[in-house]
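Researcher: Next entry: Catalase-related peroxidase (Nitrospirillum amazonense).
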Amino acid sequence: MPGYRVQDILSRRSLVSLLAIAAVAGGASAAFAYAGGWLSPGRLQPAKIVNALEGHDGKHEGFRRAHAKGLCVVGHFDGNGQGLALSKASLFRRATTPVIGRFSLAGGVPNAGDGRVTFHSLALKFDLPQGEQWRMALNHVPVFPVATPQAFLDFQLATTPDPATGKPDPAKVQAYMAQHPETKAFADYMAKAPLPSSFANANYNSVDAFRFTNDQGQTRVVRWIFTPEAPFEELDKATLADRPRDFLFDEVAGRLAQGPLVWHLSVILPNAGDPTDDATKPWPDDRQRVEVGTLTIDRGVTEDDGPCRDVNFDPTILPAGVSPSDDPLLAARSSVYAVGYTRRTGEPAAASALATDQAFPAPAAHQPAASQPAAKESAQ
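Model: Predicted structure:
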């Protein structure tokens, strides 16, 4: 997608939630990256964005540059067969697919408190037959604050705190907002929209559009959404500052101790004229949806012992039957996460914030992951 405190958009963490978009790791083809301008001399390079993230929120070795604080989850997906009319992806068959994932909040500070107006995110890795994988990076909001990689970088730089004051320069932020009304609109939305009270009762959206192709060779552009069985409850924003540091992660750990959590996956079909290349623009709620299966999360475990710590949740790692749309953010997310993944897996691993939380079992000693190619690591 790396918090994004919208009601205080000039604050230190306001930018990092953009990570929900600019942070995902390698796996896009060289041709796709080239088409996005990422491999062209003189064009915007992904290392510049990673450097900007580190400059904005500090460099925390061994942690993700985006969504630094998280909890591993393990579960499965049950397809109902309905998705095969849209895509030949094996995930949509009447079968059970193992999945690992990660709940997280936007932000590049590993020990940040959960009391922030920010993205609730869920990343997933489905292990499919014949060695295929499908990785997703999902947010509880249906849109993203910026439409292009350059806008993301510009926003990072505009909101980087001044070392002398610890706050961004208001003039720089105002200049950026004047040129990017879509970011201002997103900030207004986050300030007014209800926040989920739990990771368990939030929707999780693809945000970007993708292409589905079925066995008949028919291709159409889609988005998708995971809808929880847990009833939605609103988090009181007025109480955020008084909440314990890890209250959201503690809460979902308590729920998982009582039993599995379930979401229903629906594919959203656009009408003619709905944007496919701009993640800042929502599709209307009345668009057709096709329910294609059920995600069940059975348990959670800290990253210190869990299976997600060294996974690069690049949303362009896709199975046959799914491909990127014309949204320019997808190539950026892949490229930026590739750089971030390479850096953090070459650094000493540090204990996660949740390792010291009494709601979670004490982890065994964690050995740093060996560096491996960032583009398509096996990441078990």
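Model: Note for the record: The chain has a mean pLDDT of 85.
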